[in-house]
């Protein structure tokens, strides 16, 4: 019985890692659409999101089956509930990628991000994509050290977001209000993707160690 | 045993309604700080958020106790898991109120929202606060009809957000980039508060009827 439980739990975590890889692809393609103004790539991100939604439903169903049929307690119970939370956050990261793709699509045939802000925006996108990529490995390997390391990268994203505000609020800004608003919202979306990545990684730490890294000061 | 379970579940839902009232207060005060530039009111919202976080932890603990000790199945299990999700969303609504308060605080002694955008922004804030207020009643009364009604109000928020974009992207806009960016982000925060309110209300429908109103086309 317990062995079957842990096999099914492993299968849920495999699914979570798979969803995380789909999110990684969504972030990468949304950024490509954003920086090239490619409507077709933006559409791919938007239409692929339904698959992430479906995968979430499937994980939720499996988790409920585990809770109903196996009646886990203590650590096992908390692990299943953590999986339910992780899948919600991963789905949300997919939605945020769709928001990025929609801003890209809205500005076609132009590119939403003016040339001089592209270095900062590209860094934000790269940090977000890299964090999502590492989260799928963290889930697969239940890698506590990598998860705690990821939490520290959140600060890099905060710095980049501040840098983008400095750029768009400078006296030299001559791209108008629309581009500034786009960049502020895009920054918010990438920042939220990074926040969720850290949160998912923290849940892996909790699943493995029973402790939340945010409350033990790691 | 089943009676004890349902009493404890009622107590969890009472706690959820209480957290929702705290969120309502946070939304109201954050808006007051925003429209008056009152730093002291903004600080109150920011420092009160820790109480919402603590209340969330308490509900999570109670829900885990229920799952561990009572081992609910079927509908009861889904209700407890729904409660866990509702409390996450309520806490998030509190965080979003803090974001509004922080923009207010950042612009003190000025007011972040230019006079001509205040009508639209006030409407967004009023709609958000009203939705949160109704959600606490929906939780208390397990009021399915009111919950379904609430879902329809989300459209009002979308219209207001579009109206605010029309204002800040118009040729007449002469408040600069900073105010435009503030308004775009504030609109995003109020919209997210409304989204979460609808989601919490939908979970009440699910708890009472076993069906998610989004999937049955209500």
UniProtKB/TrEMBL annotation, chains A, B:
Q: Where is the PhoU domain?
A: 20-103, 122-204
The family database entries (Pfam families) matched by this protein are listed as:
PhoU (PF01895)
Signal peptide range: none
Instruction: Write out the transmembrane intervals.
Output: none
Superkingdom, natural source = Bacteria
What are the record keywords, sorted?
Cytoplasm, Phosphate transport, Transport
UniProt entry tagged with the keyword Cytoplasm: yes
Where is the protein situated, by its record's location annotation? Cytoplasm
Gene Ontology cellular-component annotations: cytoplasm
Q: One GO biological process from the UniProt record?
A: intracellular phosphate ion homeostasis
InterPro entries per the UniProt record, alphabetical: PhoU, PhoU-like_sf, PhoU_dom
Say where the protein is mainly found: cytoplasm
- What function does this protein fulfil? Plays a role in the regulation of phosphate uptake.
Subunit comment: Homodimer.
Which family does the similarity line name? Answer: Belongs to the PhoU family.
What is the protein name given in its UniProt record?
A: Phosphate-specific transport system accessory protein PhoU
Tell me what organism the protein belongs to. Answer: Nocardioides luti
Specify the taxonomic lineage. Answer: Bacteria, Bacillati, Actinomycetota, Actinomycetes, Propionibacteriales
């Amino acid at each position: 019985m317990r062995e079957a439980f842990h096999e099914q739990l492993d299968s849920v975590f495999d699914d979570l890692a798979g969803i995380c890889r789909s999110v990684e692809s969504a972030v990468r393609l949304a950024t490509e659409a954003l920086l090239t103004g490619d409507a077709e790539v933006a559409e791919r991100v938007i239409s692929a999101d339904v698959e992430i939604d479906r995968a979430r439903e499937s994980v939720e169903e499996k988790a409920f089956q585990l809770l109903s049929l196996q009646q886990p307690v203590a650590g096992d119970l908390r692990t299943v509930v953590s999986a339910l939370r992780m899948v919600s956050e991963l789905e949300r990261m997919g939605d945020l990628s769709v928001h990025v793709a929609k801003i890209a699509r809205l500005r076609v045939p132009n590119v939403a991000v003016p040339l001089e802000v592209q270095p900062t925006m590209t860094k934000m996108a790269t940090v977000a994509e890299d964090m999502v990529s590492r989260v799928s490995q963290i889930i697969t390997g239940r890698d506590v050290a990598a998860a705690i390391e990821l939490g520290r990268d959140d600060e890099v994203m905060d710095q980049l977001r501040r840098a983008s505000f400095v750029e768009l609020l400078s006296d030299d800004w001559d791209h108008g209000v629309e581009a500034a608003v786009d960049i502020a919202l895009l920054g918010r979306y990438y920042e939220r993707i990074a926040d969720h990545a850290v949160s998912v990684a923290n849940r892996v730490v909790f699943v493995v160690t029973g402790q939340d890294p945010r409350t033990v000061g790691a």
